[in-house]
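Page 37, continued from 36.
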């Protein structure tokens, strides 16, 4: 296979990367790959405990896709076995462990979504239960002997928990060792991950060396900040843009990001060229350029990536209709009410149509001023809604439902 020259490969590989350890080894690996016309094995481990992917996950998946575009072998390792341990990275406590059946099911969902970014036909998929489940207790003891407790405690989350007197279970020490065995099993040349995975990736280098292998290079990618502009993107913070979200949701959520994140999102979450990025930076520094216009272009770009051009155009038109012209969307869900109902309390109504999970949450929505009926704000938590005609209930900026009898 004919590979691009070293400098062209490195330009793409280094784009948006936080750290390459060590970079000179990556250069040597690529030079050897070009000389021997043999692709490098690029490894990315997938956490099956979080099957719903968002732009935060896409950052490292896109980097894997770039290696794939350069002709290297993309290898996705579904952590169905390690998912039963639970990875504590970046957390005060370990994630809850899952059953093998749960990890496999989540892994299938992960693959389906990841195929929106990767070339599925050219991506090698493996489950780490293939080798980890075959290890005997003797094998685990021998593996454990290759790493010290002192080195384990160097990991940030372990250090913080140890100093705070919080419990650390022994099985949590096995997670980075198990992840390292993945690198041994597939003889990976490069492993990718977020900055929160740096320790685990470095363990992979050490364990490969212990097994007499040439150690992998590690490449870490930044953790993209969510739409709130504060926390890393996460479903638990409700600041995420899901890659399976509707075009309208992706467009609207993207427009809600702070101006300070525009460049970051273009660089990490899109495919625009380095030349376009350079021009974008100039535009962001030009006071005559309205950041809103750059954000609109970004929103359309992301919608097009995960849907198509027509969906991007329609999402923009729908956004303008709802948020600029304050009109009702063309298509909104309907609910047929009992013909015998003549009125209903607003809190009960919000729960009934699943806009609130409880009356407590419904009360909060009303108090915050986010509830309207036919465009009229409902600010009385004890209000009764008369059901004598078709009504449009709106909650927040994007939730609409038509009430019919």
């Amino acid at each position: 296979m004919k590979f691009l020259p070293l400098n062209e490969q490195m330009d793409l590989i280094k784009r948006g990367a936080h750290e390459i350890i060590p970079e000179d080894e990556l250069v040597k690996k690529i030079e050897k790959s070009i000389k021997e016309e043999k692709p490098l094995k690029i490894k990315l481990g997938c956490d099956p405990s979080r099957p719903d992917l968002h732009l935060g996950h896409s950052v490292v998946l896109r980097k894997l896709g770039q290696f794939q575009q350069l002709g290297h072998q993309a290898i996705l390792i579904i952590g169905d076995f390690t998912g039963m341990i639970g990875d504590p990275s970046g957390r005060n406590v370990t994630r809850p462990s899952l059953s093998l059946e749960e990890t496999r099911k989540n892994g299938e969902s992960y693959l389906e979504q990841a195929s929106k970014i990767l070339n599925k036909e050219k991506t090698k998929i493996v489950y780490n239960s293939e080798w980890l489940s075959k290890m005997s207790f003797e094998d685990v003891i021998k593996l454990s002997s290759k790493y010290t407790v002192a080195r384990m405690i160097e990991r940030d989350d372990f250090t913080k928990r140890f100093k705070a007197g919080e419990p650390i279970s022994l099985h949590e020490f096995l997670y980075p060792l198990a992840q390292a065995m993945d690198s041994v099993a597939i003889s990976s040349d490069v492993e990718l991950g977020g900055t929160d995975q740096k320790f685990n990736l470095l363990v992979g280098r050490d364990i490969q060396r212990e097994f007499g292998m040439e150690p992998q290079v590690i490449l870490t990618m930044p953790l993209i900040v969510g739409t709130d502009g504060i926390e890393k993107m996460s479903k638990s913070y409700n600041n995420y843009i899901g890659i399976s979200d509707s075009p309208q949701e992706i467009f609207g959520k993207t427009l809600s990001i702070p101006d300070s994140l525009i460049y970051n999102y273009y660089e990490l979450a899109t495919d625009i060229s380095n030349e376009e990025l350079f021009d974008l930076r100039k535009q962001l520094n030009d006071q005559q350029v309205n950041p809103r216009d750059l954000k609109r272009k970004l929103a359309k770009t992301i919608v097009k990536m995960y849907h198509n051009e027509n969906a991007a155009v329609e999402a923009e038109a729908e956004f303008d209709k709802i948020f600029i012209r304050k009109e009702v969307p063309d298509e909104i869900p309907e609910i047929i009410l009992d013909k015998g109902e003549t009125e209903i309390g607003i809190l009960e109504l919000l729960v009934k149509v699943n806009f609130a999970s409880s009356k407590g949450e419904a009360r909060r929505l009303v108090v915050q001023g986010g509830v309207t009926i036919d465009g009229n704000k409902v600010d009385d938590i004890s209000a009764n809604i008369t059901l004598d005609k078709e009504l449009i209930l709106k909650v927040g900026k994007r939730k609409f439902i038509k009430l019919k009898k």
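The chain has three domains: 6-221, 235-324, 334-404. Flag for discussion at group meeting. The longest strand covers residues 41-46.
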